[in-house]
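User: Second chain of the day. Same drill as before.
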Amino acid sequence: MPRAQSDTKAEIQAAALDLFARKGFEKTSLREIAERLGITKAALYYHFPSKNELLRSLVEPLEQDMGGLFAEYGDEPGEAPEGMSDRARELLGDYFDICVRHSTLLVAVLNDVGSLADIGLIDAVVAWRRRLDRLLVGPGHGTPARMGAVIALGGIQDISVMLSAEEALAYRERALDIALAALAAGISSKD
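Assistant: Same format as last time:
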């Protein structure tokens, strides 16, 4: 039975993401992806005219999720004493979920920063982290508060890379407690 076009496209993306995470973007050839799936390179090119187009298709869901996150939370920090609130926990939790959902892509980023920088993903991640920092800390707090946000956000992102998705999700609430503790310690520090 022939594959459905959408199934083939999704299968190509899954195989490519796995190979990019294991070997890096540069060290993975389109031939390897096609061979893994038992399709021709021509069939792969039908769906993705270039390896960069394939990579962009893998990054797009992350970009959409982050766009949705910022659409939900806006750009202004929530009002809360000492910068802590249920909103901060919800924001960190939503960011945690995005990181876990895209953990294989984040591993691929670590394996091949240069190629992902070429398509703008590294700049996008840095911009996202700065926006998240502003949402969590807001104005009026100095470097220690920013450090707390960096540790909270970086820790959450790293959990998705270092642990399996199942393990990360099993400890989600504990990870959020630790991230909020780092954030609170930074905010409560005197500059």
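The radius of gyration is 19 Å.

User: Great, on to the next one.
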